[in-house]
Amino acid sequence: MRLDGKGAIVTGAASGFGAGIAMKFVAEGANVIIADIDGEAADRVAAELVASSGRAVHACRVDVADGASMAALAAFARGRIGDVDILVNNAGVTHLPEAMESVSEEDFDRVLAVNAKSVYLAARHFVPDMKARGSGAILNVASTGGISPRPRLCWYNASKGWMITATRSMAVELAPFGVRVNAINPVAGDTPLLKSFMGEDTPEVRARFIATIPLGRFSTPEDMGNAACFLCSDEATMITGVALDVDGGRCI
Questions:
Q1: Which of 5, 22, 25, 102 is deepest in the core (most CB within 10 A)?
Q2: Active-site residue numbers?
């Protein structure tokens, strides 16, 4: 129960890493909001967590790249869980693997809006209350692509590098207010985004990808949940501004 009584929001929590983080947070005693652009999937995950844990878990449809939608999420949170002690900026998208100059302007704008602008909007709507209370933990889910870029994912890599720099900048600015900001850098996992990263999902492509990971497997939602729980818990009160590789050794 390392997060007992904490109010937490996890964006993009209706699937993949976000669902794994939300599941771990609920198991550790947090009051969690499943925030996702897919409202039906968010409702379904919340219901499953309620059934398995007996705790109150809430679902909210949100577009993390839209200011009005993020403002509505903040209002929803105040009415359901009160103070937001933990905010996980997990929602993310990618473009398909292709030459950097071939990525459409529409895809570029979408990647930067969801992966970068969302962190800015979250800061606008949640940081003031954290500063006023003198406490809070923000976790940005970045990527190994932000520190060890893969070819043909140029603008996705750049958006995650932006997120890592934003994490460090936020940490320095918010430390005097008692607010910690960290990031995790997952390697690819068996999530809905995997096919987009690889271009195609075949046993041969998977084998080539896994061969680049020293521990010999994809990351899992449970891996991300465990790392996120530690960084957002009181066990990590002296840790801020880090981007923790959760990558099976890929970036060594």
A1: 22
A2: 156
